[in-house]
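Reopening this ticket.

The earlier resolution said the output was attached, but the attachment link was broken on my side. Pasting everything inline this time so it's all in one place.
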Amino acid sequence: MPLPRDFFRPQSEQTFTESRRPVHRLTLGLAGLAALAVLAGLAGLAVSDEAGPTPARRSLAAVQDRYAGRLPDPPQTGELAVYAGAPGEPALDCAALSQGRTMVALVFGQSNASNTVDPGYESVRPVYAFADGVCTKARDALPGATGTKGSSWPRLGDKLIAGGFYDAVIFANIARGGSSILEWGPGGRHNAVLLASLDALAKAGLPPTHVLLHQGEADCALGVAAPDYAAMLDAVIAQIQSKVGPETDVVVARTSQYFDLVCGDAANPACFKTCPALTQAQTAAADPKRHVLSGPDTDRLVPFAERNDGYHFTAQAADRFADAWLPQLSRSEAAARRLQ
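Inline output:
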């Protein structure tokens, strides 16, 4: 959800509570445009909160400053609120679930990694969700991420178990709709969520076997330069590995496609823009020696016609998206260790 229209109630997503007062979409769009100036210094200021102005931190702060004022400040309500889970969903024993061949994956990124898929899928195998220190059965939607619709990840969990790679899969999904790599990186407003989630998994006895990232559409729309994206992505990966160790696989998907509002015709393929330089930066981040792997390229995998509003994945696309992760995850050393 990189654009103002997407930040404020896209047609494909449901709100958490019924609106009592109709709001015209033009008003929402204007609000989104006005919000572009709200974060004019937040990212750079947040960087300064970290102790020690090392050269690396100064470099990242300079990247943050370059885009100050471009990042929107959407309301954390409606489809952009974090889903708390279904009321009354039974809590499960996380320690018991993690016994044996269990994959534990922290998932983050933006809306196509959150709960925006056509709803209706429920995992049929031992696939679970972890959020706020609690494990529950994985259903649409997954708690901990934004949105109230469906998710691609329970599909992936079922496929991994059906393929014999694991006996159980646990997803901790913290994806945030519309988020930029600038917000996940050091100094960004979601960085603390990322680091705290890794700590929470460790405290629960669920050290991640994998960290999965699907994010880039917002940065394409914001015009983030590939070197800046690459620097921030590298910093994020370094932070993750400092928390989980060097042997946890970090899998970076390739994605940048967004709908150009200026073009405005969702039936016209020319209105869907991509940033090959960003997907090249995502690809270049892969380094098997560092346990950093390349994930699916959804710019190629999911055409605009298979996005339920021109942007988010249909159920069919989500199923193919899940299939596309299998080669990377089944070949990863983390899977091999669990299979032994």
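Reporter confirms the inline version is readable. The mean pLDDT is 82. DSSP finds 14 helices and nine strands in the chain.
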